[in-house]
């Protein structure tokens, strides 16, 4: 369902119609889940963040401008919540650093059914190795096909910063492909 088809349901959801909200949820859930899964490794955290995205969306409906693409707005909420989660996690990790060193945690990527197609690509593992700031630009650009200006809007950073991160990410991916001797092509 595209943004234009969602507009009437969004208006109803803004007025408190729970069934309209449920329809918006169903139309966007898989997309939001995959975006979070690309940015976060722990399955439980992914599910918690996705739930928080929809609670935040429900609370923020009154601020949504229907002249702006809905999915850009929703991905903005998603990325900000992932960034908040990463900050909170970093604080927790620092507090429990000694315990973490003693136990070896294994991060389960996510449900194989959700990411099965993406995991088949050679570039997928390379994208996962990028820093968060580079990875989020690559995911928004190539997974969601956002223009650089839209990515700047979602991340609330200057377009020049997005271009710089995009360039650096592509350079890093090319370097890693050369190192692995892979045949994948990054343009």
What is this entry, summarized?
The chain is built from ten helices and no strands. The chain has helices spanning 3-14, 18-39, 43-60, 70-95, 97-102, 112-119, 122-128, 132-143, 148-155, 159-180.
Please characterize this protein's 3D structure.
By secondary structure, this protein is mainly alpha-helical. The protein has helices at residues 3-14, 18-39, 43-60, 70-95, 97-102, 112-119, 122-128, 132-143, 148-155, 159-180. Helix 1 crosses helix 2 and helix 2 (18-39) crosses helix 4.
Oligomer: single chain
Mean residue pLDDT = 80
The helix content, as a percent range, equals: over 70%
Overall SS class: mainly alpha
Which descriptor suits the 3D outline? globular
Low-pLDDT segments: 104-111, 113-121
Q: Would you report the number of β strands? A: 0
Distance between the termini: 30 Å
Organism: Paenibacillus favisporus
Protein name: RNA polymerase sigma-70 factor (ECF subfamily)
InterPro entries: RNA_pol_sigma-70-like, RNA_pol_sigma-70_dom, RNA_pol_sigma70_r2, RNA_pol_sigma70_r4_t2, RNA_pol_sigma_r2, RNA_pol_sigma_r3/r4-like, WH-like_DNA-bd_sf
Keywords: Sigma factor, Transcription, Transcription regulation
Task: Lay out the secondary structure.
Blueprint (H helix, E strand, L loop, with lengths): L2 H12 L3 H22 L3 H18 L9 H26 L1 H6 L9 H8 L2 H7 L3 H12 L4 H8 L3 H22 L7
Main attributes?
mainly alpha
